[in-house]
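Newbie here. two chains, one complex. Structure please?
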Amino acid sequence: MSEAIGRLGTGAGGTRNISGTHHAMVTLEETLAELHQKEAALVMTSGYVTNQAALSTIASMLPGCIIFSDEFNHASMIHGIRDSKCEKHVFRHNDIAHLESLLAAADPTRPKLIAFESVYSMDGDISPIKAICDLADKYDAITYLDEVHAVGMYGDHGGGVAEHEGLMDRLTVIQGTLGKAYGVMGGYIASSRVLIDMVRSYAPGFIFTTSLPPALTSGANASIRHLMESGDERAKQKYNVQVLNDMLHKAGLPVMPTMSHILPVLVGDAVLCKQASDMLLNQFDIYVQPINFPTVPRGTERLRLTPTPCHTHAMMFELVRALVWVFERLGIKADVESLEEVA
Amino acid sequence: MSEAIGRLGTGAGGTRNISGTHHAMVTLEETLAELHQKEAALVMTSGYVTNQAALSTIASMLPGCIIFSDEFNHASMIHGIRDSKCEKHVFRHNDIAHLESLLAAADPTRPKLIAFESVYSMDGDISPIKAICDLADKYDAITYLDEVHAVGMYGDHGGGVAEHEGLMDRLTVIQGTLGKAYGVMGGYIASSRVLIDMVRSYAPGFIFTTSLPPALTSGANASIRHLMESGDERAKQKYNVQVLNDMLHKAGLPVMPTMSHILPVLVGDAVLCKQASDMLLNQFDIYVQPINFPTVPRGTERLRLTPTPCHTHAMMFELVRALVWVFERLGIKADVESLEEVA
């Protein structure tokens, strides 16, 4: 009865501050706070919305805030930073010296926020989190770390690169996704209770939208809890990344240097990149997407590979053999050795 | 095999332009195009994201575009309009004469876009769609109509107020939600193939985010298809709205004038509004949320009621009786008659 009458007020769904904060959502936010060892967490409908809403709100609520942003930050972070209308300085990708020079040049009395990612998804490199936290301490800045390509996959409990490196407590805000490794959808931030309450109270992208339904939040919670207890999937993925990376190198394919599970194979031309993707699908039933401008700079078009824990040695060998065939047919610059050596 | 290898490229989920455009998504977009009698539709993760991404992209892609925006437009539309960086003129709510004066004063050679809603959710009033389309024709403007509070609930097939009034073909873009009446989550636009392709190709809020999973898109499609064929739910809701509105009036409760299924009951004070909501929940097991600033202007705080097709006469009477009790206890200004007359 009360449930039926409840719908008088809200209809299905409902915004978070009205009726959308259901039991499964509260449970999920408690799990996320525990995962990152923070006081609280706040879930939104996507990682994109989270970055846009959280960064714009946090920065605009700090009077005179200056934002220091890695040049390779994701489109959603750039969107949030732009919406904050704060003064912004872009530092060269993972360049600590450049970041320090910008911090040192800024007014020491103004609030500062450093926004960066742990794993950068297009190149597979990892940021110097500790060095950036040291600079944040030195120049009294808060830190906002996007771990979207790391949660579930790094750290003893899947807390990301910051957990792996024992640095979670040094970050003001950790942002992550319920998609990718966790296989569902949605995004979140974990931070202090006060900061989370501020975003909850002031971010239009959080306030004026429908909550994620219980089926998704419960699924995400189960996925996170599983990966908090089980390290098997992380170990197997790490092993598969090593195996596939070795195979690609031995085959002479132009795999770009990587520090993570992301293995970019350089093509360097948008048309060839699309053709390679089409040939892999049509001739080999293998689906690898072309990554072209504006996602990566022109001239660095690539195929991007990420083995899962479930891929077998045979599957990865089949992929490498197909890539060699396609790269040769299309005349993509590569130094292919004998395939026997690869296997 | 190909499916397993497919995951090498993308992980779970995936963005729409990379791997997230699955069969259930394509089916849903075809249904939405059919619902609104448009060439194409584009689904995003929420109505908020849809308004933000579509309005900012459409307007910014039209060189020199001037936007004319109803003053009561939703926060998501305001966000999109702001992000477009276009010149903007706000017209008084549903004020055709004011809109025309702004259109007439603008440079006739510049592109123009009129952004408005059909049902305004806080007051329950409905915009003069035909008169706005007539002005759009006269001043060569395109139109963007938010039907979030109308799809599923109005029109012979649930196409919204524009369908009910036979005006869908006169609107350039119709925007809607997969939440609310359809009970799932997500948002969309329906329009010409060219415009949809433009938003698909240029909107960061669409490009750089994970697709809705098949369970949600299939659920939404089933819900829309059902309400395209069945008018029962619409008829029953319309009847219940009339019954509840009559009950509220007869009880002397300060129900605000409405043209839709939304019945706002004025409280006029944020503290009393919250207290009324708490008392309804704690004393009567009835959950009605307080609607306070910034969602509505200060001094117009209210409780907002929307009966579903499934509420019974007895449930609605119980609600009205509880409201009378609460309003009397809290001394909220109302002109309560005898409850006998209400039932």
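Moderator note: Chain A touches chain B through 62 residues (CB under 8 Å). Residues 1-12 of chain A have pLDDT under 50 and may be disordered. Thread marked as resolved.
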